[in-house]
Amino acid sequence: MTRRRLALVGAVLLAAACVERLTAPGHCPDFCPSGQITVVDTLLTTSINRDSAYRGYVVSYQSPVMLAAVLPSATDTLDGRPIFRFNGYGPRLPISSVDTGQILGADSARLQLYIVRRDTATHNLRLQFYRLPTTIDTTTTFGAVAAAFNNAPVRPTVNVDTLLAQPGGKDPVTGDSVVVDTVNHRWLLSLKFDTAAARYVGTDSGAVAYGIRIAADTLASIAFGKGSVGPVLQWYLRVDSLGMPVARKPGILGTTLANFVFTPPTAPLDSTLAVGGVPSARSLLRVAFPKFIRDSSQIIRGTLFLVPAVAARGAPADSFVMEARTVLADFGRKSPIDARLDDPIVIHPGSTDTIKIEVTNMLQLWAADTTHPTVFLLRPQAEAQYFGEIHFYPSKAALRPTLQITYVKQFPFGVP
Amino acid sequence: MRPAVGIAVVAMTLLTPSPRDLSAQDSQFGIRGLGTPGRWESVRARSSGGAFAPFDALSPLMEAPLADISTLTATAAGGTSHRDAQLGDTITQLRATRFPLMGVAGRVAPRLVVAGGFTTYLDRSWDVTLRDSTVLRGELERYRDEITSDGSVGDIRLAAASRLSRRLAIGAGIHILAGSTRMTAERRFDDSTFHAVGQVAEVRYDGFGVSGSVLIGVAPGLTIAGWARADNRLRAQVGDSTVALTDLPRMAGAGLLLAPSPRVRFAGSAAWRSWSNAGPGAFDTWSWSAGAEFGSGRMPIRLGVRGGQLPFGPGTKAPTEFAASAGTGRAFAQGRALIDLGVERLERRGGILTERVWTVLVGLTVRP
């Protein structure tokens, strides 16, 4: 009997301690709190000022790609040409574990190149290879090698589309081949250079330098890989062995310089806000962040509006991502970037549509940390990897940058 | 005897409230106003419709009945409610567990009993969701709001009572109103471009009140009771800022107890409260109750009904409520521990809202 009573009381107490459920649909205004969430949307037209643009953050030889392009416009043609150099083995090559022999020359060589970005709409893509002076370096300009590009190509033109159409991507006549890497979306070209094209001059330490010009039926703009996906050269040499020439296949050589030159040269910065290009340009926009938003509201959306002064140049494949970031301290062109937040947007060449970038995260950061500089930094996500460059109207122009902020006022907690 | 003590210990443990649970029964009618007023009744009184509250020493409604407490007595109550809130054709099932009462009283002089404890003054626990849309940046944006309040305003009472004669007992008390609610306001847009809104605040409340009461034995088996109370204002603070000052009601009530035999007792009571002081949307309220208790000692049977008005609601008329209740009790350990059980069926009506509530009540009284 006592146990039954205990069980009964226990059950009642457990029922009394059960989880609560209070959520109910509201029927406003009769059965809702008197206070409501108030959303305000405001356009700040004069809050962005003291903006400036800077160039030179990443230059061509620091780029992880080599750009090649032929992009005509109304006033000129953007012509980009990769240039690269391989150092040689010197005048002699080991022929046994103890002996070396003089390098007599090259039978041939095989050059491998990766095309890491291309426009799928580009047809009849052709590559021409030129021998360049081995003195090329990171300061070499388009004009410095223009004469070398006026010489005859060192080997027949490579038509990539034709090569792709060959069975297995191999041309049995020229010995060229192409492999399509569908995973990484790149092409691996393997090109045969004959004795004339691959001249090994041992007295000149065997260094060779080449330049590439491209052409296509339409806008041509591609990027060659560098570094681990950069050009490599396999020499097939003839070496003297006690008066007898013997064939040798030494190790593959990577480039000691991989760069690109282009014309026309990048124009000096003007009053517009430049982003992109080579060398890469960035722009700083300083924001007078209203205290009434910063101190007593919650930002739920912020959008930065930028009006292009001119369209970005390039082929459709040259669309590049511009990102808005903020800085840890405002030191002008040397402002350290706050790596925590970024808001990206794709810039399409040829378009002059107003650019809208969602910058909510950064505005929320500024509201939370009042010591944080209220500065937007605009830069290309991949600097110096696209010729594309966009210019926006600055804060002194009529079509100045504006900031639209949607925020919520402080909820009237405690008011009956 | 040992099981009885064990039950008492377990029950006391379960009924010991955490601060956020010091609330009474919630109601959607209290969302727009100050909250849902608490019931200043022990489980014994509430099981009989509240009619016995003016005569019950363990109910914090009146102080005068404390005069008849002979030994140190502690009491606590808990209850769980299953509530159906019907708004038009939509019925939402809600559930809450509350611990609305705890008190201790003891005789400190031959003619003086003092008591301390708390009860719920206003319950402010609710959670409202709302689906709506608004035009933002030229587009219709749909969103879902959720506004919650979790907490209550407690009434901490210090009371004293004295039996001046066999027929007359008086009492008085001071009431410190204190409590807090944790409030949140959230909005989530369907369009994730708009970030979610989330605001939180801790709202603190304070106020003060005084009360007095009298118990008069008119004739053998017939007792009448009267009480009055005045509270000043409820101050709401967020951080260091006072966000609201709301006048609180004055109130008065009376009761009648008829005990034709030791095993049969009838009671009735009525009360008036000037809640309209609280501002627009608040109403003065009348409430009444009638109840009976049969049997004594080991297992009495309690029955009661009550009705009246709620102080906050839409429109120009106060919402109404009606409840029927029943309960019993059991004494253990030679009367040193008492467990009271009760069940109440309540219906509230106002505008398009109807609430139907089942409440199970458990009370524990210990006289060590």
Q: In percent, how helical is the residue content of chain A?
A: under 10%
What shape does the CA trace of chain B take? elongated
Shape of chain A: elongated
> What would you call the structural class of chain B?
mainly beta
Top-tier CATH class of chain B: Mainly Beta
Please report which band the strand proportion of chain A falls in: under 5%, 5-15%, 15-25%, 25-35%, 35-45% or over 45%: 35-45%
In the CATH hierarchy, what is the architecture of chain B at level 2? Beta Barrel
In N-to-C order, the SSE pattern of chain B is HEHEEEEEEEEEEEEEEEEE
Oligomer description: heterodimer
State the low-pLDDT regions of chain A, or none.
none
How many separate helices of chain A? 5
The tally of helices of chain B reads: 2
Give the distance, in angstroms, between the N- and C-terminal Cα atoms of chain B.
14 Å
Look at the structure and give the mean pLDDT of chain A: 91
Considering the chains and any ligands shown, give keywords for the structure.
heterodimer; A: 416 residues; mainly beta; Jelly Rolls; 14-stranded antiparallel sheet; five-stranded antiparallel sheet; 5 helices; 27 strands; 44% strand; elongated; B: 368 residues; Porin; 14-stranded antiparallel β-barrel; 2 helices; 18 strands; 5% helix; disordered N terminus
Write the layout of secondary structure elements.
The complex is a heterodimer of chains A (416) and B (368).
Chain A: H1 2-16, E1 23-25, E2 39-44, E3 48-55, E4 65-72, E5 77-86, E6 92-94, E7 100-117, E8 126-132, H2 146-150, E9 158-159, H3 160-165, E10 177-181, E11 186-193, E12 208-215, E13 220-225, E14 232-241, E15 244-248, E16 253-254, E17 257-263, E18 273-276, E19 281-287, H4 291-296, E20 297-306, E21 308-310, E22 320-327, E23 337-347, E24 355-358, H5 360-368, E25 375-380, E26 389-392, E27 402-409
Antiparallel strand pairs in A: 2-27, 3-19, 4-5, 4-13, 5-12, 5-17, 6-7, 7-11, 7-13, 7-14, 8-9, 8-12, 10-11, 14-15, 14-16, 18-26, 19-25, 20-24, 20-27, 21-26, 22-23, 22-25
Chain B: H1 2-15, E1 36-37, H2 43-47, E2 73-87, E3 90-109, E4 112-123, E5 126-136, E6 139-163, E7 168-189, E8 197-219, E9 222-231, E10 233-238, E11 241-247, E12 250-261, E13 264-273, E14 285-294, E15 301-309, E16 320-332, E17 337-350, E18 353-366
Antiparallel strand pairs in B: 1-4, 2-3, 2-18, 3-4, 4-6, 5-6, 6-7, 7-8, 8-9, 8-10, 9-12, 10-11, 12-13, 13-14, 14-15, 15-16, 16-17, 17-18
